[in-house]
Automatic annotation (TrEMBL):
Pfam families reported in the protein's UniProt record: Aminotran_5
Signal peptide stretch: none
GO MF terms, alphabetically ordered: cysteine desulfurase activity; pyridoxal phosphate binding
CC cofactor: pyridoxal 5'-phosphate
Organism domain of life: Bacteria
Family statement drawn from the similarity comment of this UniProt entry: Belongs to the class-V pyridoxal-phosphate-dependent aminotransferase family. Csd subfamily.
Catalytic activity: (sulfur carrier)-H + L-cysteine = (sulfur carrier)-SH + L-alanine
Keywords: Pyridoxal phosphate, Transferase
Name of the featured protein: cysteine desulfurase
GO biological process assignments: cysteine metabolic process
EC number: 2.8.1.7
Classification via Gene3D superfamilies: Aspartate Aminotransferase, domain 1 (3.90.1150.10), Type I PLP-dependent aspartate aminotransferase-like (Major domain) (3.40.640.10)
CDD domains: SufS_like
Amino acid sequence: MNYKNKFPIFSNIENHYLDTAATSQKPKVVLDKIREYYEKYNGNPGRGSHKLSVEAQSLLSNARECVRKFINAKRAEEVIFTKNTTESINLVAYTYGMNFISENDEIILGISNHHANIVPWQFVAKQKKAKLKYIYLTENGQFDLEDLKSKISDRTKIVAISAVVNVTGVIQPIKEIIEIAHSKNALVLVDAAQSMLHFKHDVQELDADFLVFSGHKIFAPMGIGVMYGKKEILDKMPPFLYGGDMIEFVTEQESTFAQLPNKFEGGTQNVEGAVTLEEAIKFICEIGYEKIEKIEENLANKALEELNKLDFVETYFTKDVERTGVIAFNVIGVHSHDVAFILDSFDVAVRSGHHCAQPLMKYIGVASCCRASFSIYNDESDIQKLIEGLLKVKEVFKL
Ligand code: PMP
């Protein structure tokens, strides 16, 4: 059983969508919610005493509470709405990084981080004359805890890592990383962009200092994201975007700032995004992570079995390691963009290129690759079409 019929796009177009890791398709309940929000409730939250404004404010609060429960944050005000993971990481880099990291301090990153969790830290390191250190991988593609233990020091201020590697789907040992970092009083930012759809995150159990993710990768629309931070840390950080709604008092020369969460939510918020993120979270919870994982695992295993039969295809980090339903692969001797182009002519959507992870690609010595990612709307027909497309690649390139 899969959930294809819950996603209207598949009754409108023919597509074997294997690119959920880039962005998920949207279920009908989420699409309906967008319309319902604008048809019944639209107002600017926190900016008026009329019914629609008050209603929008209360919808925003409900959505915040829903996210709080979803990640088990202690307090709703620890949940800050942003545009996406990238903005969430920039928020932490600009406010925590630029104020609490000094010359010769260290920022530790995973070599398999997405650019969104590298480039903001390069900016901070340059501005503050801090050092960037990278943690490399074990043979099976996992973050190397021994490497972390040998590189972390009393000067390490933050360790920023992905919970799941976007290129390979390898699940990283987040809990252990956090324990090691905390033993040196370093904070940890968990980039959950690739993990949120696949397993439960409990920020209190993990003891994560920051945890960020994008709505669009978990069945919600584009333009809504989350930055979770522990209250005691967020309270110390200055605001990020200055303007309306994030202030307490403004005089000609000075301003004082609002309490959390408003301090970090300058300007009109994406209420539609928050409300539909809530709907997407409810949708995920109704299905349950157990079922989601099972579907992905079955499909990825089946696909891997089929790919392994093709001697002109190689896969990366698919053995002896815990993964989400993602497979990184190449047709040997053919550029990934050419492969993806031919697959697209079979209506098979895969991502190709460097996947915004150039340091990882350089480290593993693979210039580019294709990535097939499976979700609850996929089935075996998608795998069959993928294989058919790859056989066509073999034929076209006379392999
Ligand atoms: N981190 C990871 C691990 C990702 O996979 C992505 C998206 N590919 C991002 C960050 C950036 O997400 P967004 O583009 O939604 O900001």
